[in-house]
Every structure is written in structure tokens, then in C-alpha cells.
Amino acid sequence: xxxxxxxxxxxxxxxxxxxxxxxxxxxxxxxxxxxxxxxxxxxxxxxxxxxxxxxxxxxxxxxxxxxxxxxxxxxxxxxxxxxxxxxxxxxxxxxxxxxxxxxxxxxxxxxxxxxxxxxxxxxxxxxxxxxxxxxxxxxxxxxxxxxxxxxxxxxxxxxxxxxxxxxxxxxxxxxxxxxxxxxxxxxxxxxxxxxxxxxxxxxxxxxxxxxxxxxxxxxxxxxx
Length: 224
Description:
- The protein is mainly alpha-helical.
- It has helices at 2-35, 64-95, 98-117, 120-129, 138-167, 180-209, 214-223; strands spanning 40-47, 53-60.
- It contains seven helices and two strands.
- It has a two-stranded antiparallel ribbon with strand order 1-2.
- The radius of gyration is 59 Å and the shape is rod-shaped.
């Protein structure tokens, strides 16, 4: 609205200047026309071809009058046109009202202040820089995000990887020693499992090597 008003004021000033120029032009033409001498009329007397006497006057007009009269009419028309344009420019300028724009601006400023006061980001940034939330600039908010949000986010994303790398300890299986108490608990079960696996493997080997007759196979399985 400020730009439109400034543009309208410039048009009004331009048209006013044009009107002043045309008025000066019209006044100059009128003055020049007024300074011309009046027509000079000389008395004439004589006898016509019929022998009658006559008396009259011969008036000689200044040849500059016609040109100046045309110039005066042209300047007057230009002045009238400039006056009309000035009136139109003034009407357009008067139609521009700052009231709605100022009310909209005030409402936007109030909404912005409320949004800033309710913004946690502005609150945290104001605590860091020691300012009021509505005085924090956009650059300070961006710096706060880079330092206190972006970098910690990178570290947090890599924390699980660092934790996994530091929590795993590589151990050589040849250096594992089992205490006697633990060995005493697992040795019977391990021995029983080993014997059962060996027995099952032996039975399967015998069944694969003996003849495939019903009687022989049954006897060999029993011996096994």
C-alpha cells in the first residue's frame, strides 16, 4: 500500500506539473495575442463606375493574429486535458486508504507476537542469548538449531554404533577356561549326550553294512 500511495502521489505531482506548464503556455499565448496592435482602419472615398460617390473604411488585420489565436486555442485545450488528468489522478489517490492495510498489519503483528511467545524454540534461544523471545532474530535461531539440535542429533544417531563397538570384547576360544564347579555340572549331561550319539552312529553303520534280509538285519541290530 505504501508503494501504491507513493506511485499515486508521483502521478499527481507529475500531472500538477504538466498543468502548470500548460497554464503558463496558455497565459503566454494570451499575453502575446493581447499585445498585438488593433486593426487599423483607413477611410476611403471615391466614385464608383456608375458615377456615385462613396465613403468607407479599409481595415488591415495583423497577419500574426491568426497564428496566435490558433496557438491560444491549442494551449487552452492542452490545459483542459491536463486539468482532467490531474483530477483523475487525485481521485485515484484519494481511493487509496491505508486503514485496511494498517489494520491487517496490526493483526499480523499481534499474531506473530503470540506465536513467538508460545514457541519453545524462541524460548530456548532467548535463554541461550539472554534476550526476550520476541527479540530473537532468525540468525540466532538458526545458530541455536545448528549447535544444540543438529550436532546432538548426529551424535545420538552414532551412539548406538559406538556402544556396539565398545560393548563387544573379542575372546580367543582356545583361552576359555571352565571352572571345576561348572565342569562338574555339565560333564554328566555331556557324557550322556556323547554316548547316545556314538551309539546311534554305530547302529546306523551296522544297519548299512549287514545284509538286507529281515532275519539277519534284526539279529545284527540286536547285537549292535
